[in-house]
Amino acid sequence: MSVTPSRFSGLFEMHGKKLLFLTKNLIAGTQFGEQLISAQGTEYRVIDPTRSKLGAALMKGISQLGVKPGDVALYLGASYGYTPSFVSDLLGETGFVFCIDSAPRSTRDLVFLCEQRSNMAPVLADAFHPEAYASRVSGADFVYQDIAQRNQAEIFLKNCDLFLKPGGFAVLVVKARSIDVTKKPGVIFQQVRRQLGEHIAVVDYRVLDPFEKDHCLLVCKKKI
Amino acid sequence: MDPFTSIIGERSSKDIPAFLQQLKQAKHFPAFREKNIALTRQQIQEAVHEDDLIKQAVSCITELNRVINILMKRFREWYELYHPELSHAVRDHEKLLEFAFSRKKPKDSMGTALAETDVKAIQELAAHISQLFNLKKMQEAYLTSAMGKTCPNITALTGALLGAQLVLRAGSLKHLASLPASTIQLLGAEKALFRHLKSGAKSPKHGIIHEHPLVGQAPAGERGRMARILADKIAIAARVDYFKGAFIGEQLRKQVEGKR
Ligand SMILES: C[S@@+](CC[C@H](N)C(=O)[O-])C[C@H]1O[C@@H](n2cnc3c(N)ncnc32)[C@H](O)[C@@H]1O
């Protein structure tokens, strides 16, 4: 079994009993009890698709993400930093990720993570009010959003407007339940897709079942 | 130029995206990182309020209850090998812990005669459970005083423990103060409410305020009405507490009692 580059720049894969996606560990050791794999003198971290919706989308065969090493990313809904840590690995020493979250509790753990990782910065702020943190971040090549909010699509568009470069890619994770518990998830996903489509091109789309129930992930590209 | 202090406000809003893109340079990253870490650390320090302490204390009391129950079950099982009659006769946990090794064991007990070291092991457990009971009393006293200071009006209506549970379920005093009475009435029944919305299961009527004696002890047909009246007054009390208004808790309580 060997670790080989995947078709996503900065992400690696390993074919054993199961397909695994991995990143090159930016620092040494495990940070979330995740599995480590050493190959050819390099330490890799395994992305658990049941803990990371990005990992789930990779397993579901997402075609592109539009992010590469050296990019600057804006991560909305960073929580304690599980998926952000893999984004940080992917971007590498020359890239950078701004991590926004509005909950002090999870951001406390995020701060410890950022203190360890030289390409991560924590920002405690409400993603619905990007003006309030515009002075704390730079523009971005890539935006990733995973927040369970009723108006998540509106928040996403606002942030893409302000921070994403023209032609840049952005990923939105949609949790159907936080938009409307009475509607079928599929109906909500189509509704969000249409709403986004008026402002930004939706280039791919995956439902995250069975890794994550009633969630979908959309990959978008900002118009030039 | 220090990217962090650059004054966004002076730019017209359509220039900001391009300006932010210009800041996207490796030489700025260390400053962005250090200042955001420092600022976020400070924000986190300032984000702790009195209701956060209340939430921890009431959660701790709930957990102590669970732990004490688990260990008490174990203690009785274990002790009954030695002296089942006393455990059978003394149903009150704290009393049993108090008497378990000070009362003489009758000669004709069903229990086995155990070696001193075997008894010692059971005794150690009893001593530690007693301490957990003491800890729980201390935490309850602390909760009562903290609730009295932060939520005097809610406390007058519901008592410290139930009031604190409402704050916990709402997430914060601020959020509790923003909730309509109809939602307060259902706090603690979120799962049933979700089932109801999703699959049309029957709508829940019982939140944790049903633990209040005025609701719980009302005749079955009256409970819904009492819960509504109580929730109405809690909504008012929460707002007064959040905005640190005057004490009207006694009045509110009398109004609820008057509707019995
Ligand atoms: C599902 S978690 C994100 C998990 C994370 N993306 C991962 O995979 O490791 C959602 C996060 O969004 C945050 N959040 C919710 N509303 C927000 C808002 N308006 N602004 C910023 N963060 C928000 C929550 O605090 C929570 O930490």
Query: Hetero groups bound?
Result: S-adenosylmethionine
Order of helices and strands of chain A: EEEEEHEHEHEEHEHHEE
Query: Which range best describes the helical content of chain A: under 10%, 10-25%, 25-40%, 40-55%, 55-70% or over 70%?
Result: 25-40%
Oligomer: heterodimer
Number of strands of chain A: 12
Kindly state the number of beta strands of chain B.
Answer: 0
At CATH level 3, the topology of the largest domain in chain A is Rossmann fold
What count of helical segments of chain A does DSSP give? 6
- Specify the structural class of chain B: mainly alpha
Spans of chain B of at least 5 consecutive residues whose pLDDT stays below 50 are: none
Rg of chain B over CA atoms, rounded to whole Å, is: 27 Å
SSE order of chain B, one letter for each helix or strand: HHHHHHHHHHHHHH
- Poorly predicted runs of chain A are none
CATH superfamily of the largest domain in chain B: Nop domain
Overview of the molecule:
Helix content of chain A is 26%, strand content 31%. Chain A is an alpha/beta fold. Chain A folds into two domains: 3-47, 2-Layer Sandwich (Phosphorylase Kinase, domain 1); 57-221, Vaccinia Virus protein VP39 (Rossmann fold), CATH 3.40.50. Chain A has a seven-stranded mixed beta sheet with strand order 8-7-6-9-10-12-11, sandwiched between helices. Chain A has a five-stranded antiparallel beta sheet with strand order 1-2-3-5-4. The radius of gyration of chain A is 17 Å and the shape is globular. Chain B folds into two domains: 49-150, Helix Hairpins, CATH 1.10.287.4070; 152-260, Nop domain (Serum Albumin, Chain A, Domain 1). The N and C termini of chain B lie far apart (69 Å). Chain B has helices spanning 16-22, 29-46, 50-79, 84-89, 93-99, 116-150, 152-158, 160-170, 173-178, 181-184, 190-199, 213-216, 223-242, 249-258. The mean pLDDT of chain B is 92. In chain B, helix 3 runs antiparallel to helix 6 (116-150), helix 6 crosses helix 7 (152-158) and helix 13 packs antiparallel against helix 14 (249-258). In chain B, 67% of the residues lie in helices and 0% in strands. Classes of the chains: A alpha/beta (224), B mainly alpha (260). The interface between A and B is medium-sized, with 33 and 32 residues. Bound molecules: S-adenosylmethionine (SAM). S-adenosylmethionine is lined by residues 52-53, 76-77, 79, 82-83, 100-103, 106, 126-128, 146-149 of chain A. Residues 52-53, 76-77, 79, 82-83, 100-103, 106, 126-128, 146-149 of chain A line the site of S-adenosylmethionine.
